[in-house]
Design a protein that fits this description.
This protein has 201 residues and is mainly alpha-helical. The chain is built from 9 helices and no strands. It is globular.
Length: 201
């Protein structure tokens, strides 16, 4: 089976929510997504998250959007890659903007040095001793489960706005898609944050 045909074969089951198809596509595109995210994050501190986090988040949003029918032209490898590039670029851009905001810690956030002990030579490179090179399927499943749990707390209108925001759309784009004002979107996003914070508290 050619590479083109194999990707096309997985797209049908992916749209039906098949986890095996998602895993196959993840295995195929993981390294490309990480390289793309790394390029987009150049100049970013990457203290809150890195290119692997962006790749995982982008792929999860892609799979969820495909299952919801958000990408009607998703029928071959080229269209699939275009969609993933857009989502990954938006995720990386949002992360860079988030980390530049001084109110998000003002430079007081610590990096992986927090995982090192007194003897750096003995313990190696900080967080690398704790996590592997790739997110495990169990971790990806845990992220997806928590994502679905939080979305399930919201009514349909708020859930859609949360999905769009997680996919990297700006407030202005969300306002256009939901046919309301930007301030209305901001109020709804604040409500979503409050509900999620109350739940986690």
């Amino acid at each position: 089976m050619s590479n083109e045909n194999s990707v096309s074969v997985w797209l049908g089951p992916l749209k039906e929510g098949d986890p095996q198809a998602a895993q196959q596509l993840w295995n195929r595109y993981y390294e490309k997504l990480v390289r793309l995210a790394r390029k987009k994050l150049q100049g970013s501190s990457r203290r809150m998250a890195d290119e692997e986090d962006v790749a995982l988040s982008a792929f999860h949003s892609f799979c969820e959007g495909a299952a919801l029918g958000k990408f009607p032209r998703l029928d071959d490898r080229d269209n699939l890659w275009r969609v993933m590039v857009i989502i990954t670029a938006r995720k990386a851009s949002r992360l860079s903007e988030y980390e530049r905001r001084q109110k998000r810690g003002g430079g007081a956030l610590r990096g992986e040095s927090v995982f090192r002990g007194e003897n750096d030579d003995e313990l190696g490179a900080g967080i690398q001793q704790i996590v592997g090179d790739e997110p495990t399927p169990a971790f990806a499943a845990q992220v997806a489960e928590e994502h679905n749990r939080l979305l399930g707390m919201l009514d349909e209108e708020l859930r859609q706005i949360a999905r769009w925001k997680l996919e990297g759309y700006t407030n202005e784009e969300i306002a256009q898609m939901s046919k309301c004002g930007v301030r209305t979107v901001q109020r709804k996003l604040n409500r979503i944050r409050r509900e999620w914070m109350e739940e986690n508290a």
